């Protein structure tokens, strides 16, 4: 626009239109910042997302530890099985003792009747 009042009317109208659009966007942003319900909702959604991420990480960590522990237990069981295979005498003694105990119980119960 020039100082004497003459100017391009179309350009002036376009500038007014752009200014209104910018003003509308600014007002929407300000309204969004001032809306307590929207702020609480956004905060709750962010907290949910953080909790889901934390739960996912914790579950992955627990699964990893459980798998590691299971491998360790399997290895220990294999070692114990190997030890029993090499020296079955203690297990045979336990089995014999259990058999003797069962026989004694049967005899004692038979005498009581």
Key attributes of the depicted protein:
single chain, 113 residues, mainly alpha, rod-shaped
In short:
By secondary structure, this protein is an all-alpha fold.
Number of discrete domains: 1
Radius of gyration: 42 Å
Low-confidence segments: none
| Count, helices | 3
Between the first and last Cα atoms, what is the distance in angstroms? 125 Å
The total beta strand count reads 0
C-alpha geometry: rod-shaped
The biggest beta sheet, please? none
- What is the H-and-E element order? HHH
- The chain-level structural class is mainly alpha
Portion of residues in beta strands equals under 5%
Helix content: over 70%
- How much is the average pLDDT? 86
InterPro entries: DUF3618 (IPR022062)
Protein name: DUF3618 domain-containing protein
Organism: Micromonospora tulbaghiae
Transmembrane segments: 89-108
């Amino acid at each position: 626009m020039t100082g004497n009042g003459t100017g391009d009317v179309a350009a002036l109208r376009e500038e007014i239109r752009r200014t209104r659009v910018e003003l509308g966007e600014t007002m929407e942003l300000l309204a969004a910042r001032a809306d307590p319900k929207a702020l609480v909702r956004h905060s709750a959604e962010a907290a949910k997302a953080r909790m889901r991420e934390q739960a996912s990480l914790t579950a992955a960590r627990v699964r990893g530890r459980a798998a590691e522990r299971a491998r360790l237990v399997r290895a220990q069981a294999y070692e114990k099985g190997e030890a029993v295979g090499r020296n079955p005498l203690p297990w045979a003694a336990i089995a014999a003792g259990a058999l003797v105990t069962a026989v004694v119980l049967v005899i004692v119960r038979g005498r009581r009747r």
